[in-house]
Write a structure and sequence with these properties.
The chain is mostly beta strands. The chain is 0% helix and 49% strand. Strands 1, 2, 3, 4, 5, 6, 7, 8, 9, 10, 11, 12, 13 and 14 form a 14-stranded antiparallel beta sheet that branches. Strand 3 and strand 4 form a beta hairpin. The chain is globular. It starts with 35 loop residues before the first strand and ends in a 6-residue tail after the last strand.
Length: 255
């Protein structure tokens, strides 16, 4: 993975704040009844090592565990990795419509990387046919000039190469629960990401990490949700992430 992030033109919009609050764990939600391509809130799974007939697992130096919420009812997925490990829930064989899809999850990150410089992390990855791009609507990097980790849309594996379009207007804050949403729009080859319904990042066909090659979205059939870090020798030495209320749908689910 490339260790240098590139700043691209990213827009920031202001929308209503997620009603669940910034610090408290949000209430569990049922899966959306209509328009859902994939949905998982973990409440029906037993506590312990995560497993389901509805999705697969992709791990290396990492684990997925179903846990009870620390407050309130319901369960969450606890992701734990060591150094540059990975641990993903993998939704395959998705029937994504031609107009693309929206995603939503509730997320809490224990700590983001503070070393090495340009440490690159991914939480959502989408792949498919028609384009070799590995699209990363939720991810970011530790950016030394900013002295902190920043959110950024990214991609790899296709003609646009390896890029992460981070922005200082979207700091990656550890600790609180957040509602994270994203959209992949094949009609315009645009990726849009929201945090708590407010900070919106956009990568377009022509504005994506400073690369002049046009960015073309694949016809998505697989989405991975979890955590991966690509450089070794990290600070901290391991990472803990909690995820809940995952939904992939043909229309925006919302927070």
């Amino acid at each position: 993975m490339k260790r240098i992030g590139l700043l691209t033109a990213l827009s920031v919009l202001t929308l209503p704040l997620f009603a669940g609050g910034a610090t408290a764990a949000p209430p569990a939600r049922d899966c959306p009844p209509r328009g859902a391509l994939f949905c998982e809130n973990f409440d029906r799974l037993p506590v312990g090592g995560a497993a389901s007939l509805d999705w697969g697992i992709d791990t290396r130096n990492g684990t997925l565990t179903v846990e009870r919420r620390s407050a309130g009812r319901g369960k969450v997925l606890h992701i734990r990795t060591a150094d540059n490990g990975r641990a993903f829930l993998r939704a395959d064989d998705l029937a994504v419509p031609a107009e693309g899809f929206y995603g939503r999850m509730r997320l809490r990150v224990g700590a983001f990387p503070a070393a090495p410089d340009w440490a690159h992390f991914t939480l959502v990855e989408a792949t498919g046919t028609g384009s070799a791009e590995v699209v990363r609507p939720v991810g970011g990097q530790y950016v030394p000039p900013a002295g902190r980790a920043l959110w950024g849309i990214g991609a790899d594996g296709g003609p646009t190469g390896d890029w992460t379009a981070w922005t200082e207007s979207a700091p990656a804050d550890a600790g609180p629960w957040q509602c994270v949403e994203w959209r992949l729009d094949p009609a315009t080859n645009t990726v849009t990401t929201w945090f708590d319904g407010r900070a919106t990042l956009t990568a377009t066909e022509d504005e994506h990490g400073g690369n002049p090659v046009p960015f073309v979205l694949p016809t998505v059939d697989t989405v991975k949700i979890g955590w991966q870090l690509y450089q070794a020798g990290t600070t901290p030495a391991g990472f803990d992430v909690w995820i809940d209320d995952i939904a992939l749908a043909s229309r925006r689910v919302g927070c």
